[in-house]
Specification:
Shape: globular
Number of domains: 2
Distance between the termini: 43 Å
CATH architecture of the largest domain: 3-Layer(aba) Sandwich
Oligomer: single chain
Radius of gyration: 19 Å
CATH superfamily of the largest domain: HUPs
Helix content: 25-40%
Order of helices and strands: EHEHEHEHHHEHEHHHEEE
CATH class of the largest domain: Alpha Beta
Structural class: alpha/beta
Length: about 280
């Protein structure tokens, strides 16, 4: 089975396929994706394989996390290429439901996460987003019933929301955050990087450089507000449209003002041309 990728399209087929592995010595890991797989996704797969005997990769472009003005229709889709990469990686199962399978006629339940989902970061600019994410991930967790679920730290607020959601709903899954995979120049891998023009791609690594510089200066004792203000100016001078650059508590995502307020995560979202980039670093 480990060398033969099985593509599953219905919930009943998924449950039948996974039933033989619900044994004490068998662990199942889930890697939720929207496809357009890159090296970041494959790092999640490798960590899933390290932790479990069977790996399920879901591929589902979730419409409920896109606003009407966002890129659902044009979001990169490369199913055949994705399958080849997963087959080469010896993944066991691909869970590839249709929209109709995930949201059948009459579907009327939506999760409304709070806490980290209302931190004034991504939720300020994409107020629909975390309700869509929490709903689809909760469905994936109840469909697959994994022991582990792997998420990238690049989408840090999403990681905190999903972790809290699983805890609040008593779902028997351990959510694992995997470090961001980057290009050699520091740009975080993202399916949306394909939207960048050549000129924009040359500027994009500045996002990571500014975040790292801010983190180093805070570690050296500079006041957080001053460091963030300088960082915002640097983004402006580099030609980014800034949505936010914030220092937050690394677990709750609550605002902080000094290093004594707890472990710190710096989070930023910028616009470069038509592309929106997000990134974060620990302090």
């Amino acid at each position: 089975m480990a060398n033969r990728l099985k593509i599953i399209r219905t919930v009943s087929s998924l449950r039948r396929a996974l039933e033989p592995f619900r044994r004490p010595n068998e662990r199942v890991a889930l890697v939720p994706t929207m496809g357009a797989l890159h090296r970041g996704h494959m790092a999640l797969v490798r960590e899933a394989q390290r932790r479990s005997e069977r790996v399920v990769v879901s591929i589902f472009v979730n419409p409920t996390q896109f606003a009407p003005n966002e890129d659902f229709a044009s979001y990169p889709r490369s199913f055949a290429t994705d399958l080849k990469a997963l087959r080469d990686a010896k993944v066991d199962f691909v869970w590839a439901p249709s929209v109709e399978t995930m949201y059948p006629d009459g579907f009327g339940t939506r999760l409304a996460p709070e806490g980290a989902a209302k931190a004034g970061l991504e939720d300020e600019f994409r107020p629909h987003f975390f309700g869509g994410v929490a709903t689809v991930v909760a469905k994936l967790f109840t469909q697959v019933l994994p022991d582990f679920a792997l998420f990238g730290q690049k989408d840090y607020q999403q990681l905190r929301v999903v972790t809290q959601m699983a805890k609040d709903l008593d779902l028997p899954v351990k959510v694992i955050g995997v470090p961001t995979v980057r290009e050699p120049d520091g740009l975080a891998l993202s399916s949306r990087n394909v939207y960048l023009s050549a000129t924009e791609r040359a500027v994009a690594p500045m996002l990571y450089r500014v975040l790292n510089d801010c983190a180093a200066r805070i570690k050296n004792g500079e006041k957080i507000d001053r460091v963030l203000n300088v960082g915002r100016i640097e983004f402006d001078l580099a030609g980014f449209g800034l949505d936010y650059l914030e220092a937050r508590h690394a677990v709750t995502l609550a605002p902080i003002s000094t290093s004594k307020d707890g472990p710190i995560r710096l989070l930023a979202a910028v616009r470069l041309g038509k592309t929106r980039l997000i990134d974060n670093v620990p302090v």
